[in-house]
Design a protein that fits this description.
Layout: E1 7-13, H1 18-26, E2 34-41, H2 47-54, E3 59-61, H3 70-83, E4 88-91, H4 100-105, E5 110-114, H5 126-133, E6 137-144, E7 154-161, H6 168-191, E8 197-198, E9 201-202, H7 210-213
Parallel strand pairs: 1-2, 1-4, 2-3, 4-5
Antiparallel strand pairs: 5-6, 6-7, 8-9
Helix pairs in contact: 1-6
């Protein structure tokens, strides 16, 4: 019996790509529903490019500094994605804001992982924001990408406790462990069609229940 066709996925990174590596490792399983076929970065010096190449995955830099406008850079990304036959895009520490047109073109087919329990603490410095706010739980969120930053429909979240004496680094260390567990699971849900975006909301397949939310402590 042959396995179902795998969804062709590109991962976009700007840095070392630790979440990218966790997804690549998960995708090695024969029954994983996604195949990582391309890694792109807006930074030629991004460590994630070398890590992807070492895993045998085509990796390419499209330097945003070489483009006069956000739209022209996005057009170059679009061309690379289409050339590779990409069906789903995963952002893994990709530190660029897309044009609305690019986001709309990939609506329901582009996901991101963010280091907070959205809708709390959008943007950057999320761990500092959590400590400043005095929350007892922090974590990470996988969501669909929409034009508004960090505001897309939520696919999955994982929570960690905020402990007495935590600083931003210790909290980040605890969250990243959950990120590496959560992103491959959330991608599998999306790639297998079990968490599609419909009318601005994530609709989990029958029987997903709490499994779809993927909460963890």
């Amino acid at each position: 019996m042959s396995l179902p066709k795998k969804t062709r996925v590109a991962i976009l990174v700007s840095g070392r790509g630790s979440n990218m590596v966790s997804v690549i490792e998960a995708a090695k399983a024969p029954d994983y529903p996604a195949e990582i076929v391309l890694v792109l970065s807006n930074r030629p010096d991004a460590g994630g490019l070398a890590r992807a190449a070492a895993a045998g995955i085509p990796a390419k830099a499209i330097d945003h500094k070489q483009f006069a406008t956000r739209e022209s850079f996005d057009a170059a990304l679009e061309a690379a994605l289409r050339e590779a036959g990409i069906e789903l895009v995963c952002l893994a520490g990709f530190m660029r804001i897309f044009s609305a047109g690019f986001v709309e073109a990939w609506a329901g087919r582009m996901i991101n992982i963010h280091p907070s329990l959205l809708p709390l603490f959008r943007g950057t410095h999320t761990h500092e924001q959590a400590l400043e706010a005095g929350v007892r739980l922090h974590g990470c969120t996988v969501h669909y990408v929409v034009p508004e930053l960090d505001a897309g429909p939520i696919i999955a979240q994982a929570a960690v406790p905020v402990l007495p004496g935590d600083d931003a680094d210790s909290l980040a260390d605890r969250v990243i462990v959950q990120e590496h567990r959560l992103y491959p699971k959330a991608l599998a849900l999306v790639a297998s069609g079990q968490a599609p975006l419909k009318d601005g909301r994530v609709v989990f397949a029958a029987g997903q229940g709490a499994k779809g939310a993927l909460h963890s402590l």
